[in-house]
Design goal:
mainly alpha
């Protein structure tokens, strides 16, 4: 299997979501999320800061792992197998959607998440071919996206 770029499937999954936010923010009729401007700014900034931190620490950690050619299972990668995507989708794009004050902008998050689920298989197949059993064991212990607890009935 051919080596993947350092960006993986990121551009395919993330860029359309940002473009959708811009388009919807500019052209869709507004359906208000929060009428309190200050609260909207605080929530947006909090989400954006968390998202940027996720992406920064993920990228830094991944770069070190790529240089050593080891599977990265430490730090932020011990709670999510895809923390950069998680940072973009759950925090940055969601923060921008809240900032836009338009419910339609949340469709961009759904678009990006759908693309993520569609294209991430290619990245996972590559990692499985390179790291084999180590990657399979990692997948058993670390969630693909969000480290949410499972609800049991």
């Amino acid at each position: 299997m051919e080596k993947q770029s350092e960006f993986g499937v990121g551009p395919i999954t993330i860029i359309p979501g940002y473009l959708a936010i811009i388009f919807l923010w500019l052209f869709a009729d507004e359906i208000t999320i929060l009428s309190n401007f200050a609260l909207r700014i605080v929530i947006s900034l909090a989400l954006l800061i968390i998202g940027i931190a996720f992406v920064y620490f993920s990228a830094s950690s991944l770069k070190l792992a790529q240089q050593s050619e080891n599977l990265n299972t430490n730090g932020i990668y011990s709670i999510s197998r895809n923390p950069m995507y998680c940072g973009h989708l759950c925090f940055i794009q969601t923060g921008l959607a809240v900032l836009s004050n338009n419910w339609y902008c949340f469709f961009s998050v759904l678009l990006s998440f759908s693309l993520f689920k569609l294209f991430i298989k290619k990245e996972e197949q590559y990692l499985n071919s390179v790291y084999a059993e180590e990657y399979v064991l990692y997948c058993k212990h670390v969630k693909q996206f969000l480290p949410l607890p499972r609800l049991r009935a």
